[in-house]
Amino acid sequence: MTDAAGLSGLKVMVIDDSNTIRRSAEIFLKQSGCQVILAEDGFDALAKIADHDPDLVFCDILMPRLDGYQTCALIKKSPKFRDIPVVMLSSKDGLFDRARGRMVGSDQYLTKPFTKDSLVRTVGEYARRREREWPEQASA
Asked: What is the pTM of this model?
């Protein structure tokens, strides 16, 4: 389990049309020291991503208007935001869903309902990877 200090200050965006999922993720992540940005769909997320420049994005797949695959693809096509890791969130755990997520550029797949441990562990993995790849940014 990652210590809270290791996640302190990380900006994490959670995109989900379920208020319950957004609030659960927000509570778990804030308890671990993260800053949390919430978005209720892909359009909301794309509007907020430029303002907040998150370190990591959790993106639900099944959302109205702009689904998670489309949202992830748009993030990954942007020269400014393509390096932000995107973790797909879904209640479906099929091989096709995982493969489709990879095709649009997602970095990982987390099945709902998630636990606090699985959510925080996922953020911790990206925090450690970021420290290895960009040590000067991690200490900033």
From this structure: 0.90
